[in-house]
Amino acid sequence: MKILIITGELASPLVHDASLKTDHDIRVHVVNTPIAAFLTPQKIIQELRTLPEKELKTVDMIITPGLIRKDISPITKEIGIPAYKGSTDAAYLDIVLEMVENLDLSTKKSADKLIEEEQRKRALKFISDFEEDTKNRKKLLKKPGNILVADLPVGEDFPMRVLAEIANAPVLTHEKLLKRAEYFVKSGANMVDIGMIAGENMASKIPPMVKLLKEKLDVPVSIDTLQSEEIKVAIDAGVDMVLSLDHGNYQDVLPLLKDNKIPAVILPTDYKNGWVPESIEERVNSLIDLKKKCNGIEVIADPILDPINSRSMVDSIIACQKFKEEVKPDYCPIFFGIGNVTELLDVDSVGVNALLAGVSMELGASILFTPEESGKTLGSVKELSISSKMMFLAKMQGSIPKDLGINLLVFKDKRKGEEIQEEIDVPTIEGMDNYAFTQDPAGSFRIKLVDGQIMAVHYQKMQPTIGISGQNAKEVYHEIIKRKLVSRVEHAAYLGQELQKAEDSLKLGKNYVQDFPIFQKFMEY
C-alpha cells in the first residue's frame, strides 16, 4: 500500500524511523507546526491541497496523528482518500503499519486503542468459546481432578475459579450481605463464600443467608466454617460447597455430604485437637490421608498457603507441588488461599495477586480464594479474575503472560513513550503555592464519594443548595459551569483539581478526602 502519514515537526524523526520498518510505500508529510496534536482536520485538508494532485492520486490511505481530538472523516470527504487516525504515540506507529491491512482503522479512535480493543476482544472470545463448548466440557469433566461445584466446572483443565469470601457474614444485614455478594460477582467472582465467625456457633443465621444468595446469585455459594453443626445446617440449606473439613470434623459431616453430593475443601489439620502440621511432609501426608478418608465425595485440597515469613510461604508452595505429585493419577482440584498473603502484606494487592495467580497456574491450582477486608486489598476479586484469565490464556497458548490482550497494568504504562524534545525559547517561571484564597461569591463546594459516584454539594452562606453527582469529573464540572455555580477562575481551577482527584480515587479504590493528596510519596529510610 502507498500510505501518506501526516505529522508535526517534533514527532517527524520518530515517524520517519517507523516508516523504514515496513514494506509499505510510505511518504511522510511534515506540517509546519511543532506539535502534531495541535493539527485539526481542516488544517490537514489545507496542507493536502498544497500537494501535487498527481501525487495524491497514487495514495491508498492517509494516516494522521492519533492525538487529534476531532473526527477526521472530513479529510476523506474533501480529499477523496481514506483517512484514519494513527497511534497516540509516534513510537508505536511501526506496530500500526505492521497490522494496517488487518486492522479496522477509525476516524475517531486512535489506532493503538483499536489494537488493544481487538486483542482484548479476541482474548475474551477465546475464553468464552472455551467455556461455552459443552462437548469439550463433558469430555474434560471425565478426567480425574475435574469436578462440578453446582453447575460450575472446576479443575486443572479449566480457568482458575475465583472464590470471594464475605467475611463475618452473620453480622451483616441481609441487604448488606446481598450487596457485598453482588459486588463480588460483578467484580468477576465465580463463587461466593459465606464466611462464618470463628469460635461462635451461629448456625441459626445460615439458612436465610444461603436461601437469599442462592435465589439472587447465578454462581455457586459455599460456607466457610469448621464447626460441624454449622456445616450440617448449611448442607440442609442447600449450600454448594463446604470450607472446610479436617481430621477433627470430617466424621461428623461426611455422611451428610455424601447423601447430598456436595464437594468439600479439605485441610491438613486437626483444629479440634490443636494439631497443625509442622513440616512439608506432614502437610502432604495429612492431606493424602484425609483425602482417602473422605472417599465418596469430591474434595478440593488446601495445603494452606502461609503468609510471608510466618511458617513459610515457600514451604507451603512446595507442599502444594509435592501433594500434586504424590496423588497421581488420582488428582483432585487444589485450593489456593491467596488472601492469606495479600491481607498480611503491606503492598498494593494488584501485582501480588497477579504473581500468585501465576504461581497457582504453574502448580495446577483450581480455586483462588480471597476476601477484601483491608483498603490495600480492595479490588482483589477483580484483580484475581483478570489474572486468572491471563494465566489461562498463557497456559493454553504456551506463552508467557504478556501481550495477551488482557492485562493488569494499573499504575504504570506497558511501554516507555519516546520523549519528544521541544525547544521552548520563552522565560520559565517557577510556580509558587502562595496565592491568597478569596471566597467565591457564587458559593463553595463539598466534594465526596457516595455509592460509587462523585458528589459535589454546593453551599451558599453555609447552607447546601444542590448536590451534583456523576461517574467522572467532567460530568460534574460541566454541570457546575452550566448552572453558573462558580465565578472565580481560581475556584474553577481548584474544583477541576479536586474533582479529578475524586475520579482517580474512585477508579483506584482509594480514600478521597477533599484538600488532601490521594498519593503519598515513597517513604525515605
Q: Whole-Å distance between the termini? A: 57 Å
Q: Which sheet architecture does the biggest sheet show?
A: 8 strands, parallel
> Taking strands numbered 1, 2, ... along the chain, how are they ordered across the largest sheet?
12-11-10-9-8-7-14-13
Low-pLDDT segments, ≥5 res: none
Instruction: Sum up the overall morphology in one term.
Output: globular
Helix content: 25-40%
User: What is Rg?
Assistant: 29 Å
Number of β-strand runs: 17
What is the tally of helical segments? Answer: 18
Quaternary structure: single chain
Mean pLDDT over all positions: 93
The proportion of residues in beta strands is 15-25%
Structural class by helix and strand composition = alpha/beta
Structural notes for this entry:
The protein is an alpha/beta fold and 525 residues long. The chain has helices spanning 12-19, 41-48, 53-57, 73-79, 93-99, 111-132, 134-141, 174-187, 206-216, 228-237, 250-260, 280-293, 313-326, 339-342, 349-363, 380-397, 473-482, 489-508; strands spanning 2-7, 25-30, 61-64, 83-85, 147-149, 152-154, 161-166, 191-195, 221-224, 241-245, 264-266, 299-301, 335-336, 367-370, 444-450, 453-460, 463-470. The chain has an 8-stranded parallel β-sheet with strand order 12-11-10-9-8-7-14-13. It has a 4-stranded parallel β-sheet with strand order 2-1-3-4. Strand 10 (241-245), helix 11 and strand 11 (264-266) form a beta-alpha-beta unit. Helix 9 (206-216) runs parallel beside helix 10 and helix 12 packs across helix 13 (313-326). It is globular and about 85 Å long. The model has no long low-confidence stretch (mean pLDDT 93).
